[in-house]
Amino acid sequence: MTFAIEPIDPADLPESSPAYTHGTLVRGGHRTLFISGQPPWTTKGDVPADFGAQCRLAWDNVKTVLADADMTVDNLAKVTVYLSDRRYRELNSRIRHEVLGEHRPAITIIITGIYDEGWLLEIEAIAIAPDLEDGTR
After folding, report:
1. What distance lies between CA 69 and its chain's CA centroid?
2. Do 49 and 114 meet the contact criterion of CB atoms below 8 Å apart?
3. How many CB atoms lie within 10 A of CB 68?
4. 24 Cβ contact partners less than 8 Å away, ≥ 6 residues apart
5. Nearest to 104, CA basis, from 16, 12, 31, 11
6. What is the tens place of the pLDDT at every residue in 68-122?
7. Which residue among 7, 21, 62, 69 is buried most deeply as judged by most CB within 10 Å?
């Protein structure tokens, strides 16, 4: 069975962009990974002061969870980014595009209060990968 993650961009909705798709369709036998909200912290709990460093660190944490499940950012089907302030929208978008490249999972950005006041964002995601032949994760 063929496995694919495909963007869905209906013609009767506003045109999508290189960093946005209206939906994501997953076809074929697969494994699903639900990634809890990843804060911008190091293994020692340190949090950088500026948004750019926090955003890259949170994405690194997402990639670490993906790697542990034998996946990459190309396996992301859905990403939700929680921002503490609207002023981070553009930088968040640029960094997300750097991280994801041409891959366009379904994306939601929410401006909200974050669990820890020092965190300027948090990223959660859902990733999909083909079933493994040997039965491992």
Report:
1. 15
2. no
3. 10
4. 5, 6, 7, 8, 77, 78, 105, 106
5. 16
6. 888 999 999 999 999 999 999 999 999 999 999 999 999 999 999 999 999 999 9
7. 62
Among 78, 56, 61, which Cα is nearest to 127's? 78
Distance CA 41, CA 30 (A): 30
Cβ-proximal residues to 70 (8 Å cutoff; 6+ apart), any chain: 129, 132, 137
Q: Identify the residue whose tokens are 């034998």.
A: 70
DSSP-derived secondary structure for 9-54 = --TTS---BTTB-SEEEEESSEEEEEEEEE-S--TT----SSHHHH
Tell me how far apart the alpha carbons of residues 79 and 68 are, in angstroms, rounded to a whole number.
18
In the three-class reduction of DSSP (H, G, I as helix; E, B as strand; rest coil), residue 5 is classed as: strand
Phi then psi for 78, rounded to 5 degrees? -145, 130
What the block records as the tokens of 12 is 């009767």
What backbone phi and psi angles, to 5 degrees, belong to 107? -125, 135
Query: Quick one: pLDDT at residue 1?
Result: 56
